[in-house]
Every structure is written in C-alpha cells, then in structure tokens.
Specification:
The protein is an alpha/beta fold. The protein folds into 2 domains: 161 residues, FAD/NAD(P)-binding domain; 112 residues, FAD/NAD(P)-binding domain. It has 7 helices and 18 strands. α3 packs antiparallel against α4. The longest helix is centred in the first third of the chain and has 25 residues.
Length: 297
C-alpha cells in the first residue's frame, strides 16, 4: 500500500472540503484532499448546477409551446430530455474539472477514492490505488446523501432519490414527488414542464415549510395552475406496485388516499454521509445521525 504523509487531510471534496483544503495550503500546510466522486460535491454534480440547467431548458421548451400566442410559429420541435440531462450534467462536470485545475494551482494534492479512518491520524483510501494517508490534522467534510422515508416500498424499482433522478434515460408519463421543499418543487417543475403528469405530496400544511405562508400559498396556486397536483397535510405511508404502476398510500386529515404514477421521486431532504467512514476508530461521537462538535466545530 502506498503511503502519503501530510499536514492536513480533508475527507470530502465538496464546497466545505475544497475551500478548507485551499485555505490550509495558503497557510503553508502540505494538504491532501480525498474525494470518492467528482470535486464540487452535491451542488455541482447532483444538485443546484444541473437542476438549474434543466430548469432553463424546460423554461425554453415551455416558451416555445406558447410562442404562437405571440405570433411566432415554431413547428416540429420536441424535448429530448436525455440530451437536456446530458447537457446539464456536462456543465457540472466542467465546473468539477476546473476545480481540479484550481486544486493543482493551490498546491493541494487530490486523491480519488473512498476514504475510511483506520485510526486517529490515518485514513485508508480505496481507489485505483490503495493509499494510506497520515495527517497531523484531519477535516471531515464528507457531505450528505439523500434521505429516504422509513416506509415500505422505498427500495423498489422506479422509486428514485434526487441523485438518481439526474441519471434517468427516459422520462415516465407520470411522476409522484414526495417532499414539498425547495428540491421537490424544483423537480416537480422540471417534470411538469417536460410534459410529465406530476403530483407533489407534502406532509406539512404548506409547501416550502418554514417560509411565509402567504408566499407559499401563492406559489402553490401557480403550480396548480400549471397542472401540478398538490397534496398538503399528506403523509406517505407506503409504496406498492400494481400493473407496473406505483401506488403511494397517503394519510390526510380527510382520511387515507392513494396516488398513482409510473415513478416516485423521494425529495425529503438529505442526511450526513458518516456511515462506513470509520468514525468508530477515532472515537468521534455521533448522536441522531450527526457528528457531535464543540463551539469550534
């Protein structure tokens, strides 16, 4: 096994990790950044960047569909969602590649592979080459993964996380989105504007919980006017498959209901990626799925 000795090792190459690595290098440290995927983290590769690109695509598509209202005749056009998705992911990849160049310029060594603590001060990295990284200081910036509800059926076929939704080859005719936060609304808009019959389920009384109700009620009405079916105060209980369709059973104040679609998107948030990275080997305390820290992190 190859060995690398550094002053600072950063576990995770997202916005927290790569910024910390750059700063440590600027302060004179020898720095290694360990990343199991692409630099940039969720936002660049699986979130903000590709979804905003998709939103721009479907916005343009929607405008083309309405162009005749403004005296512009556009014939024989269609949405190629696979190509739109490829473009969106390509934009994220470009940013990630530029981050790699930035790391090199800043003197940060990037080690690609899955990092796991062997003992305090030592990380074993499994990748194309297995490397043992010894560091005086280690920063944990391992990011997050999609959260799944603890209900039957979430592991079945065509039940996707938001990460997986950015890899689909072909859009289904209908999508059920569980979760009415910012991400759920974003994907609901993308699907609906792509001519997919879309239904959004939110367990709280309003979409975008925590935001001003006057604003969220107005947004809800706009989305419904665009054809998105929205259920609030609706808690998903289980997901079943029937005749190749997905049936989501939901609990509402009016009683239990079922919602049917070809696929289900889980958009209920994310949780820290702290499993299987060997925290038990360095006596890091975890509570409620989160790392306990002091006032200095």
């Amino acid at each position: 096994m190859l060995k690398e000795k550094v002053d600072v090792a950063v576990l995770g190459g997202g916005p927290g990790g790569y910024v910390a690595a750059i700063r440590a290098s600027q302060l004179g440290g020898k720095v290694a950044l360990i990343e199991c995927g692409k630099l940039g983290g969720t936002c660049v590769n699986k979130g903000c960047v590709p979804t905003k690109a998709l939103l721009e695509t479907v916005k343009l598509y929607s405008l083309l569909k309405k162009s005749s209202e403004f005296g512009i005749e556009v014939n024989n056009f269609k949405l190629n969602f696979k190509e739109a998705l490829n473009k969106a992911n390509f934009i994220g990849s470009e940013i990630s590649e530029k981050l790699s160049i930035l790391m090199e310029k800043k003197g940060v060594k990037v080690i690609y592979g899955f990092g796991r603590f062997k003992k305090p001060g030592v990380i074993e990295v499994s990748g194309k080459e297995n490397i043992e990284v010894n560091a005086e200081k280690i920063i944990i910036a391992s990011g997050s993964i999609p959260l799944k509800p603890s209900i039957p059926g979430v592991e079945s076929k065509n039940v996707l996380t938001t990460d997986e939704a950015l890899k689909i080859e072909e859009l289904p005719e209908s999508f059920i989105v569980i979760g009415g936060g910012a991400v759920g609304i974003e994907f609901s808009t993308i699907f609906n504007d792509s001519d997919v019959d879309t239904c959004l389920i939110e367990m709280m009384p309003h979409i975008l919980p925590g935001e001003d109700e006057e604003i969220t009620d107005y947004l809800k009405q706009l989305m419904q006017d665009d054809g998105i079916k929205i259920y609030v105060n609706a808690k998903a209980l289980k997901i079943e498959e029937k005749n190749k369709s997905k049936i989501v059973y939901v609990s509402t104040p009016e009683g239990n209901k079922t919602v049917q679609g070809d696929a289900v998107l889980l958009a209920i948030g994310r949780k820290p990626l702290i499993e299987n990275i060997g925290l038990e080997n360095i006596n890091v305390k975890i509570e409620g799925g989160k790392i306990l820290v002091n006032d200095k992190m």
